[in-house]
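User: Please fill in residues for this 115-position structure.
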């Protein structure tokens, strides 16, 4: 399985970005895709996940400003980020998990929030 993330960039505080992650290869119909991020000097942290059956999970601090969605037919995951803050600056990684215990990571896309 390969994950290709895109959509990162430089945005001013208060702006929006939409990230995409396209999965290809042997993607099973039942899986969980998610977004994680890692800021400089910090550990990678959960942003949100979305199961193929429709269940979403957000890190508490991301609720309200971030919206995760997916298109199962295209095996594509999205992250709409609104009202961005400088502390949202990080490399955002796409993740896919499927049984029995496969875990895949994308290459990451840089998001920089700065004026």
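Assistant: Residues filled in for all 115 positions:
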């Amino acid at each position: 399985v390969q994950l290709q993330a895109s959509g990162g960039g430089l945005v001013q505080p208060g702006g929006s970005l939409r990230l995409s992650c396209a999965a290809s290869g042997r993607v099973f119909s039942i899986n969980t895709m998610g977004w994680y991020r890692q800021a400089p000097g910090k550990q990678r942290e959960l942003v949100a996940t979305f199961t193929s059956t429709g269940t979403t999970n957000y890190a508490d601090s991301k609720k309200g400003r971030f919206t995760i969605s997916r298109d199962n037919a295209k095996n594509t995951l999205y992250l709409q980020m609104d009202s961005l803050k400088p502390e949202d600056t990080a490399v955002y990684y796409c993740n896919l998990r499927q049984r029995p215990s496969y875990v895949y990571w994308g290459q990451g896309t840089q998001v920089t929030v700065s004026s």
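For context: The chain has no helices and eleven strands.
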